Amino acid sequence: MVSDLERRFTEDLEKNQNIIHKVCRAYTTSDFAHKDLFQEITIQLWRAYPKFRGDSKFSTWTYRVALNTAISLYRKTKRQIVTSEICENLNNLESKDYDATKDEQLELLYQAIRQLSDIEKALCLLYLDDKSYSDIAETLGITEVNARVKMNRAKTKLKELLNV
Amino acid sequence: MTQIDKFKDVWKNQEEDNLKYSYNTIQKMLHKKSSSTVKWLFYISVIEFCFWILISFVLDADWDKIINLGLYNFITILNILNYIVIITFILLFYRNYRNISASSNTQKLMKDILKTRKTVYIYVLYNVCMLIFSFVVILYFIFTSEDFISQLRTSSPNTDLSVSLTIAVIISTIIILLVVGVLLLFYRLIYGILLKRLAANYKELLNN
Fold this sequence. Notes:
heterodimer; A: mainly alpha; 8 helices; globular; B: about 210 residues; mainly alpha; about 0% strand
């Protein structure tokens, strides 16, 4: 018997699952790990859901729990990044590569993000999703000044990795 | 439009059609078991509490010998103190554990996890200190008891008593230090594996 709460939560999550997929794609390197992290985020969201009072949007709340799970709660299985392959792809990236398909560009972006630290990944994801500094500071629990400093550093690193 | 803006544009327009889970798949996930660090932390902590409670039962088993050594009052006070400390730590641990929420901000979540782990770590340190203290007191009473000295005299009649006692003290100290060393190494290893990444992330987040 599925409760109303469970049905409502599953529907909301189904609609907003792209947020979790973005986080999973940034923090994992295999399909198996992606699904594993997605499942852990879903479990954490479901556990926290009874206390979700709707002060923030469901999507904002999901984003926060997803990032928290990826950074602090998820126990990674062997996390193998084929570094040489990533570097090769990134080194080939010059301005002419902007003719490449959107999918390729997106994959290159993800490959660059995966090379950053867990905190930098979160910062870059929030930046790419146009979150304000006050939102970023609130999500991560740091001061706005600290958020700006860290963001500038993470952005510079990302740009270097993307050769832009 | 700068090049990074073009990437941003691609990011915003990304489609995840190939990565969409159905309603049923998501619903099944809700009932799976979590394998998060917090869950492991909880299991390990419960094992630790049980381990030290069991140890205290094992150690106070031989009351006749304890009474003979004149240690009855000492062991009784120590036991009462131990139970008070165990209950306090279990309550503290439970309170800290309950405070851990995945919807807190990242810094608070990390802080709460590390605080819970710290509670258990202090509990372990307390037990290790108590173990050393109890051993030292018990060994002192054993080594100064008439029974032990007469046994020592009978077993090695040609050796000087002070030399025999010194050897006994050194051997006991080495055994205690080895036990404590192995225990501490074991804890460092477990928590190292479990929380190393989290501790590093916490440090990075707080640093300017």
